Each structure stands twice: as structure tokens, then as C-alpha cells.
């Protein structure tokens, strides 16, 4: 029965878009999409910062509340900053993903390993009981407020971790047992791995999967950071998604484990000194942001946390704060997708059908190049990722490129 239903939905999508039924490279159905698909970093959240977009979840990292900043001495905790961050998130009805790492200087086995946010932060704790005590303290204090715990940030980079994949799996397993004991409904998210520095990714990620498998997958979610290289585009990110999913398949990651992108932006300098930062603004910024969340729907990334809500950062390529094209693209994509069931096909363009022939709601975009698209029956407007709408005639042909376009009636709000 379910197979018949899915086939019917796909048939509607093909008919509406004018595509033929010749085996698309990739097709997926699902939904509804909830607001948790739209994550954000808010560095100043403990100072009361609030976004003006409808994000559903916040990742607490780079916000002054890491392990070494809270647990400042053995058995002593400075909770004020984390209390304030969580209270502000709660006030905004944001679910919270909290990053449990990295190691305090006093607990580090080697204080020369890492400098951010403190010396020794990239070191394995000299005694795993310090880690267990820390995780226990956090979960007991915030069990009603923190919805998901991430083990570590970017554990494939020596900036953040200089232990082994096996040691990271040991920390993961230890935290999992504690979280399950005191807050069994919370999600446990694996240490994140960046992808764009391929040597570091390949050195860490497959081995981490191997070690997690040995201890019976003490996680609910796998995590990667899919920043492309400085000149990269959403199409570059799609290639990373496919690489990660291929490696997860090779590593025999259970299908029940979701995949999250817990940091994403574009234009960040690197890898290496020969790739300077690229500033991305105007409608292109809106297009990149919207395409990111559309690609998540098409390729099975359950959540993406945008990095970050901050005024005029000189680090990232796309700015995200009130009045920016980045924020406009984020909010537009959220309005298109939130609450939707979907049937998507990969192509040029990609197409996601979220309505029906009577009430069409279709989004089309091309990760690279451009293609021709047939305006669905009964659709009267075409709205882009800046939420600029123009009238269209059903059955007419339009060209779709990297700017995502929504087709429907009435226009997206």
C-alpha cells in the first residue's frame, strides 16, 4: 500500500513538472518538514540576542559556554553564561543542541594541544572521569531544556581535537550512557567532522565510524560540517553530501541514524592560503541559503545549522542578520518548506512537489547549469528566494538556474 502511494505521488510530480519517467538520478518522498530543519548559531545568545527569522533550533557553540569555559576547575562550575543562553533560547521557543566539548586546561592530558577556547582544548582528558562528571552535571542541570547533545566540534581538525578516533568514540560512548540514564529522550549527536579539507576528513571520519560500530553505535545522529572551499557553491556542498553518505554506507551506519549539517556557510577562506574569502551578497546570497535547505530536503540532511547570526562578520561569505539577503533567503525557504510533505526528483532542474494539481506548490532549482521547466497547472505566480513574485501562465516554459523558484497560487508569504 505504501509503495503504491509513493508511486502515485511521484507520478503526480512528474506530470506537474513536465519531466519524463525515465529513472531520475535520485528521487525521494517525505515530510512533513518541521522547523527543526532550520537551525542557527547565535554567538551572543547569552547576552539576549534574538534572530528575526523563524529558526527552530540553536546550536550552542562559539557562544562562551564550552566545557572549559563553564567547568573552570575540577568540581567547580560557572553556570551563569549557559543559564542565560538556555533561558534566552527557551524564551524564543528554540530547541537546543549543546556541544559538550572541548577539554578544560585543568583536565587536559596535554595543555599544548589546542588553544581554542583555552589551552589544552584539543586534548584527550587526562582522566575520563572528568568527562563523565562534566556530562553528568550538564544533563542533570538542563535535562528539561537541552534537546540534543553533540559530543565534540570538528574532531577531524587538530585545532579542536588531537586525540584518536578511538578515544573520541570512547568519549561518545561514555556520554551516551549518561545521557540515556538521566535524559533518555534527548538525542546524542556524534562529534562533527568537516569535509572540505579532504585529507583531514579521510583520516578521521571512516575510522570514527569504525570505532563507533565497535561500541554498537552510541549515537542517534551523525554530524558533518559541509562548508565548501572558499569559491564553492551549493553544488559543491551536494558533492560533499554524496561523499559522506557513501562513506556512511561503507561504514555500515544504521539507517536509523539521521545526518545533520551542524555548521554551514559559504565563501570562508581556505582550505590553504591560496583561497581567500569570497563575499557573497545580493540575490545570490538568498539563492545559496535557500538552495542549502532545498538540497537538504532532496538529499536527506535532516537539519542544517547556519553559521551564524552575527552583524558584519569578516569570517563568512554570506552575512546573516536583520535586513540581509542571507536572512531573506533563509526565511523564504522556511516559509516554502515548513510543514510540507514533499516528492522530489534530482535533475536540471531539481524539482520538489509539495502540493497537488489543484493546489500547486512546486519549487525548482538547479545546483549547476540551467534547465527548462513547465509551469504547473493552476499555478499563477513564480516567486524567487528573495520572495519577489511575478505572474506566470500555466503550461508555459521557464528557464531555471541557481535561483530557486516557487510556483503556486496564491504566492508564498
Quick take:
By secondary structure, the protein is an alpha/beta fold. It has nine helices and 18 strands. The chain has two domains: 83 residues; 307 residues, TIM Barrel.
Task: Give structural notes.
The chain has 413 residues and is α/β, with parallel strands linked by helices. The protein folds into two domains: 2-26 and 351-408; 33-339, Alpha-Beta Barrel (TIM Barrel), CATH 3.20.20.80. It has nine helices and 18 strands. The strands form three sheets. The chain has a nine-stranded parallel sheet, with helices on one face. It has a seven-stranded antiparallel sheet with strand order 1-11-12-13-18-15-16, sandwiched between helices. A two-stranded antiparallel ribbon has the order 14-17. Helix 4 (128-142) runs parallel beside helix 5 (165-182), helix 5 (165-182) crosses helix 6 (198-214) and helix 8 packs parallel to helix 9. The longest helix is centred in the middle third of the chain and has 18 residues, at 165-182. The radius of gyration is 22 Å and the shape is globular. It starts with a helix and ends in a 5-residue tail after the last strand.
Q: Beta-sheet strand percentage? A: 15-25%
Overall number of structural domains = 2
Strand-pairing-aware structural class: alpha/beta
- Mean pLDDT over the residues: 93
**Which of globular, elongated, flat, extended, rod-shaped describes the shape?**
globular
Query: What is the CATH topology of the largest domain?
Result: TIM Barrel
Supply the CATH class of the largest domain.
Answer: Alpha Beta
**Biggest sheet architecture:** 9 strands, parallel
Low-confidence stretches: 1-23
What is the number of helices? 9
Please provide the count of β strands.
18
Spatial order of the strands in the main sheet? Answer: 6-5-4-3-2-10-9-8-7
Radius of gyration: 22 Å
The N- to C-terminal Cα distance equals 35 Å
CATH architecture field of the largest domain: Alpha-Beta Barrel
Helix content: 25-40%
Amino acid at each position: 500500500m505504501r509503495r503504491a502511494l509513493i508511486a502515485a505521488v511521484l507520478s503526480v510530480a512528474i506530470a506537474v513538472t513536465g519531466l519524463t519517467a525515465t529513472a531520475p538520478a535520485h528521487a525521494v518522498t517525505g515530510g512533513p518538514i518541521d522547523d527543526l530543519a532550520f537551525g542557527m548559531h547565535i554567538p551572543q545568545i547569552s547576552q539576549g540576542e534574538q534572530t528575526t527569522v523563524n529558526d527552530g533550533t540553536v546550536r550552542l557553540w562559539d557562544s562562551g559556554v564550552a566545557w572549559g569555559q563553564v567547568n573552570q576547575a575540577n568540581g567547580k562550575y560557572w553556570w551563569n553564561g549557559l543559564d542565560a543562553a538556555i533561558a534566552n533560547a527557551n524564551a524564543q521557543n528554540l530547541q537546543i543542541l549543546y556541544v559538550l566539548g572541548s577539554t578544560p586546561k585543568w583536565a587536559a592530558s596535554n595543555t599544548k594541544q589546542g588553544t581554542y577556547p583555552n589551552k589544552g582544548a584539543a586534548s584527550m582528558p587526562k582522566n575520563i572521569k572528568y568527562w563523565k562528571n562534566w556530562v553528568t552535571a550538564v544533563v542533570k542541570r538542563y535535562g528539561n531544556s537541552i534537546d540534543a547533545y553533540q559530543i565534540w566540534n570538528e574532531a577531524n581538525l587538530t585545532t579542536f581535537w588531537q586525540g584518536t578516533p578511538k578515544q573520541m568514540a570512547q568519549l561518545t560512548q561514555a556520554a551516551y550512557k549518561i545521557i540515556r540514564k538521566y535524559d533518555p529522550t534527548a538525542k546524542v549527536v556524534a562529534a562533527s567532522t568537516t569535509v572540505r579539507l579532504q585529507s583531514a576528513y579521510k583520516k578521521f571520519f571512516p575510522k570514527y565510524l569504525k570505532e563507533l560500530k565497535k561500541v554498537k553505535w552510541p549515537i542517534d545522529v551523525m554530524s558533518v560540517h559541509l562548508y565548501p572551499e572558499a569559491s564553492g557553491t551549493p553544488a559543491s556542498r551536494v558533492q560533499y553530501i554524496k561523499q559522506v553518505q557513501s562513506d556512511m554506507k561503507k561504514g555500515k551506519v544504521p539507517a536509523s541514524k539521521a545526518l545533520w549539517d551542524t555548521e554551514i556557510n559559504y565563501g570562508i577562506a581556505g582550505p590553504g592560503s591560496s583561497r581567500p574569502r569570497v563575499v557573497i551578497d545580493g540575490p545570490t546570497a538568498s539563492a545559496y541559503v535557500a538552495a542549502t535547505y532545498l538540497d537538504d530536503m532532496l538529499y536527506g540532511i535532516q537539519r542544517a545549522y547556519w553559521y551564524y547570526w552575527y552583524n558584519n562578520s569578516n569570517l563568512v561569505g554570506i552575512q546573516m542578520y536583520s535586513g540581509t539577503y542571507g536572512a531573506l533567503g533563509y526565511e523564504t525557504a522556511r516559509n516554502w518548506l515548513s510543514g510540507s510533505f514533499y516528492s522530489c526528483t534530482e535533475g536540471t532542474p531539481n524539482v520538489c512537489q509539495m502540493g497537488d494539481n489543484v493546489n500547486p506548490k512546486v519549487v525548482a532549482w538547479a545546483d549547476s547549469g540551467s534547465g527548462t521547466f513547465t509551469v504547473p497547472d493552476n499555478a499563477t505566480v513564480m516567486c524567487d528566494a528573495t520572495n519577489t513574485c511575478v505572474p506566470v501562465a500555466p503550461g508555459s516554459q521557464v528557464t531555471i538556474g541557481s535561483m530557486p523558484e516557487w510556483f503556486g497560487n496564491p504566492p508564498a508569504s
